[in-house]
Amino acid sequence: MYPHQPRLADHLKQAHAHSWQRIANAGECFTGVERVAIVRTAREALTCELCDTRKQALSPRAVTGSHEHSGTLDTVVVDMIHRIRTDPGRLTRAWFDEVTQHITKQAYVEIVSVVASSVIIDTMHNALGLGLPVLPHPADGRPSREFNQAAVEAGAWVPILAADTTMADTGLPQVPNIVRALGLVPSALELFFSTFRPHYALKDIDMSISQGQAEFVAARVSALNECFY
Questions:
Q1: Best label site of 9, 26, 115, 161, fewest CB within 10 Å?
Q2: Whole-angstrom Cα distance, residue 95 to residue 154?
Q3: What CA–CA distances, in Å, run from 90 to 59, 60, 84, 117, 171?
Q4: How many Cβ atoms sit within 10 Å of the Cβ of residue 159?
Q5: In sequence order, what are the residues at sequence separation of 6 or more whose Cβ sits closer than 8 angstroms to the Cβ of residue 12?
Q6: What is the mean pLDDT of the segment spanning 73-93?
């Protein structure tokens, strides 16, 4: 039991509201209605029987069936969202190639950004026992189709942001790989990092815990989530 009712810090409330507003607006590939539906589908994945069975199977390809979901998103998109939300550690290039026969690589990047951003917000709320926030009302507007024409092929699944390999004082690349990976769709990159940055920083962290404690938590969570990096 919490001695006091937990609450979000004001700067996180503002950051979350800003992220929901971004998600509710049309992106580069999807309308606001579709982007909110992507978040709803990601939430539904957590109670999907097919996803649960697939997660327990030796290989995700050994299990077939239909996902539990509401809405009108394409079945390929629904399957993609469910896999990203529940079993991301076993996504393969062969699976990605199958998905991108049905949707563009730009659409793939935008979906990843919307799902990952919503997971940050939902996880924070669940951890504090606050319950999931109400989904935003979709805004009008059409996808802008403004992509990074300077993205380069560098052996990744998608064309990535061109960047040098200069190292920062943290010992990591000055331009992290996740920045480069989302760089094909600038708005997707901006959405994810505007959601992510208020929760974590590699240095000068603005929290009541120390940088070392924050790194311990981050490393432990990454290990439990089987993070590639």
A1: 9
A2: 19
A3: 8, 8, 9, 20, 28
A4: 21
A5: 124, 198, 199
A6: 95
With 0-12 / 13-18 / 19 or more C-beta atoms within 10 angstroms meaning exposed / middle / buried, residue 55 is middle
Full DSSP string of 175-221: S-HHHHHHTTSHHHHHHHHHHHGGG--SSS--SSS-HHHHHHHHHHH
* Confidence grade of residue 166 (pLDDT, cut at 50, 70, 90): confident
In a 3-state reduction of DSSP, which class is residue 145? coil
Number of Cβ within 10 Å of residue 96's Cβ equals 15
DSSP assignments along 17-28, one per residue: HHHHHHHHS--S
Hunting for tokens 């607006």 — which residue is that?
25
pLDDT at 23: 98
